[in-house]
Model the fold of this input.
Amino acid sequence: QVQLVESGGGLVQSGGSLRLSCAASGCTLSDYGVGWFRQAPGKERGFVAAITWSGSGTDYGDSVKGRFTVSRDNAKNQVFLQMNSLTPEDTAVYYCAAGGWGTKVSAYNYWGQGTQVTVSS
Done:
């Protein structure tokens, strides 16, 4: 059974940085493209970033381009999301997803439970 666990969330001041991790069990994460999504209160879950199985290809949502970087360490079965220059608008629960590719929630088969990121002004 594929399980994804996010970590690294927390409270940070505006302009700060956080690094999220997505660890997998029950699968070899390098077999999958992995996406990051986020959901703020009262809003739909939206695309943040994605990385191909090899790490050679990435994609970003417009609101995070130039600030966030997705990467992976297949040897450690982990994917990361480095978030810089955070603003209060980045406050959300962040989810990693695997077993798909693209910007749509429906494109992915497996999801983590999410990690809260709160950016104070």
The chain has no helices and eleven strands. The CA atoms of residues 43 and 115 lie 16 Å apart. The longest strand covers residues 18-25. The chain has a mean pLDDT of 95.
